[in-house]
């Protein structure tokens, strides 16, 4: 019995293992069919296609020039749609993909042609962009241009994934539009080239060098993406009749690859680290640097790891600032960052934050104006309240005097009555006094007499002829 149970259990276990292995094999086959591009890649055709696209002559040169003009126009007016339109027609990818492929297959001739044509491409682009920004009447430094004066990790990621998308598209058998695949490349290359042209036209070395630095980084990573894909797909190496030449070319390609790869990895890490630090600083500023009546702006220098924070408005106590500094130190990404808070006239000259400071000053002026308006409203309400209190005190005095003169009075109330005459279109205010008497059996004639005497006294007392005295039961006397 026990033996049969054991055999049944082993049999069930084997069946479960077979089911699991079947699921695993099917999953592997599905993923392989879904993601494997080796069988559907035409390596020889890809090499010939890349070789044809390297040269910048004739039509390609003019298309590049016109696309640079369009992209410069888009950056100049801050229109993303126009820049994207320029990317659709830009032939930038040829020499850069050629460099990556040339290194991957040890083709020194392709590598030389790619480098030469890359120089031609950069020269034509800079010339066209400089010409546009020199002639255009709009010389404003837009946010679109400013964003291309310094590299960040997002630009590098665009270059990497754009390069991967392009080379994978080019290796596929059949046809995939180069214009569509090249949009990702143009995204990383065209705006920096146009911005560099803007820097030349304005004579601003910082703009030019920053934009060219960004362009160079993106170029390297696009070429690197091409190199990696071609190696993974095992593109055929160029064969040389001379064995020594083959080894020499292979060694040169390896050295070039290492020279490009090592700094690229380090640079990517540095950009990533700076991006993480800036994100942490933005979170810190939004979450902790908050104080009633205070606005702030900051500038961070990644090289010195120093954060300068300028506070505008009401003075912030030192105890609060010390608490902010402790919160800053609690961020793992900002453990090596030193901070300095400035208030009022102690604020330094923070380059690059003029617009933020000007904006905050405008907001501060607006706040002051609103506070002034609120102050005027409060003053007016206080004056109105004081007038009401004064009127109440005057009525209290008058009512006491009236009671002394007319002991038969039980209550007296007062309210101004505003009326308008449509015959002569005039406004008039009547001081209406309503009275009641202790003696409810007082005859109407007596009430009229007392009301008349009270009315005459009130006219004299409040220095007004527009007085009405009436009893609570019925109107007894008019003006």
From TrEMBL:
Is the keyword Cell division assigned to this protein?
no
Q: Which UniProt keywords apply?
A: Membrane, Transmembrane, Transmembrane helix
- Short name of one Pfam family for this protein? DUF389
Residue intervals passing through the bilayer: 61-77, 83-103, 115-133, 153-169, 176-200, 206-229, 249-269
Could you tell me which InterPro entries the record lists for this protein?
DUF389 (IPR005240)
Q: What is this protein called?
A: TIGR00341 family protein
Instruction: Show the taxonomic lineage.
Output: Bacteria, Pseudomonadati, Bacteroidota, Flavobacteriia, Flavobacteriales
